[in-house]
Amino acid sequence: MDVALDIGPGLAKATIAGRVNGELVDACDPIESDSTLSIITAKDEEGLEIIRHSCAHLLGHAIKQLWPNTKMAIGPVVDNGFYYDVDLDHTLTQEDIDALEKTYA
C-alpha cells in the first residue's frame, strides 16, 4: 500500500492486492527486499475476482448472522459475479432479502 501511496493517493485507494515477484500478496503485506511489484486494482481481472471472492464470504457471514441454522454449501466466484448455495428452513421473502442487504451493507 505504501508503494501505491508513493505513486499517488488515487492508486492507493484503488489498490486491492499485489504481486511481489509473481506471488499474490495482501495490499498491506510488507515488501522486505528488492522485488518486482504489480499492483492489482478492480480494473484488473484478478482484482475483480478478489473482490467477488471477498463478497461471497461477506454474504455467507450475513446469512449465518440472520439464520444461524443455515447449512452452507459453496460460494464460488463466477464470470459475472458470485453466488452462495445454502440450505434454509424456509423460502426467502422480499423482507428476508431486504434484511440480508441491510446486514450485508
UniProtKB/TrEMBL annotation:
Pfam families in the cross-refs: TGS
EC number: 6.1.1.3
Domain TGS span(s) in chain numbering: 1-41
UniProtKB keywords: Aminoacyl-tRNA synthetase, ATP-binding, Ligase, Metal-binding, Nucleotide-binding, Protein biosynthesis, Zinc
SUPFAM superfamilies: TGS-like (SSF81271), ThrRS/AlaRS common domain (SSF55186)
GO MF annotation terms: ATP binding; metal ion binding; threonine-tRNA ligase activity
Protein name: Threonyl-tRNA synthetase
